Amino acid sequence: MSLSDPKSKVLLQLDPDEHASVFDSVVAIDSGVDHLLRHHSVKESDVEDLVHGAIFTRGLEDLKRTAIFVGGSNVEVGERILKKVISTFFGPLSVSVMLDSNGANTTAAAAVLSATRHRDLQGAKVVVLGGTGPVGRRICVLAARQGANVMLGSRSQSRSANAVDTIKLLDSNWNLTPFATGDDAWLDEIKDADILISAGAAGVELISKSQLEKFSQLRVAIDLNAVPPAGIEGVDVMATGSNVNELVVYGAIGVGGLKMKIHKAALRKLFTQNNQVLDANEIYDIGTGIVSK
Length: 293
Fold this sequence. Notes:
The protein is an alpha/beta fold.
């Protein structure tokens, strides 16, 4: 299709980094985008003109064939850009937009959905290590939304408590409890967990094999760290629902297969109508459809 063809699918990739993500670009192309318009070093002040270019160039019936993807490595910056994109729309003049800066939304969705393959989240005790980071927070939100009792862990009790307070602003009925990992005493708080997800910084071990052995009823352990050492000692980065001593384990690349499917499905969904905002919850719901097949 030519770019002038109103039936062609056009995706604007807005990336605040110096170089627009090659990863995000390749996934977009593999998802069936006809034309990819890559913008790097995007600032909030740039967004209005870029969005206007997207919404003023096609008739209302063809706006669903233009969409925006907000990426980059900094999730907080991506969130601000998304907010600016949405505020620029008016009336029926809008296009669908997806946020997945640093892969936070698709990774969180894939991690939680991987756990649901083995344990219903309603009433489950879910422990999230590295819960104050962008992926960890999203995991906590998605798990709490499904009725889990979420334990949000951080090295700092105050940071953990602040994260819980912020998340509960979304829904005060969600069951979230903060804890700190300063010494081994924290293990007593979480040893009855059903699901353990490690979402900490790359290359940092958050829990050892000996500590893991103290869990009495753990069903699933998921490590999202692809850089050695593993966040959960002993979890193979390639593990995809492997059974290790009656414990189901997933490594970062093992979760990555589902993440990629969710990412591509979300991009394709952008072009079904012109008024969607795909953030963590919406992307999770897309993933639910994939897992249920």
